[in-house]
Amino acid sequence: MRARMAIRASGLMVELREVLLKEMPAALLACSPKGTVPVLVLPDDKVIDESRDIMEWALSQSDPEGWLPAAGAARAGVSALLDENDDVFKAALDRYKYAVRYPEHPAEHYRAQGERFLRKLEQRLVLCASLTGEQAGLADIGILPFVRQFAFVDKAWFDAAPYPQLQRWLARLLDSDHFTGVMQKYPQWHEGDEVTVFP
Prior knowledge:
Blueprint: H1 2-10, E1 14-16, H2 26-31, E2 40-41, E3 47-48, H3 51-61, H4 73-97, H5 107-127, H6 138-153, H7 155-160, H8 164-174, H9 177-182, E4 196-198
Antiparallel strand pairs: 1-4, 2-3
């Protein structure tokens, strides 16, 4: 989702091949044996197979909305926030979302671990509308899919939780053209299908 949002924001056009993880095409595995998505294959056959790297590549080509932070401390701060999201928060999210696979603790234990990050986001959003300023940027779009998943594990709990700024931030981004524009469903791709251009 975040890779598609960055590509859409960049104004670039790519060929889209929608796949099912349980039916991973041989062509995709030939490009990236990891067997994960997303995967971006560049015209020079270079492969980028991490969503965060795809975001940064797309925005480095074209960034009309200024999502990439300026160099120096601002970029380092965004990178650190995304690192915490992608590592610590995602680990808590996975355990909270699939608590039955981690019976060592109840789901509430993993939720509490994830809440440490939610509190950090809430504190940032008290100061400004987005995580690094008044306009959404790389940090917001990079973190959005994970907060969305966390919220929807138990939406009633999230809606009642003491994170009013985060709740507003999430609602605003889920209502944005960039989010709704990437949620279109595409048919599963098979070898020989016609090209689907995204966005």
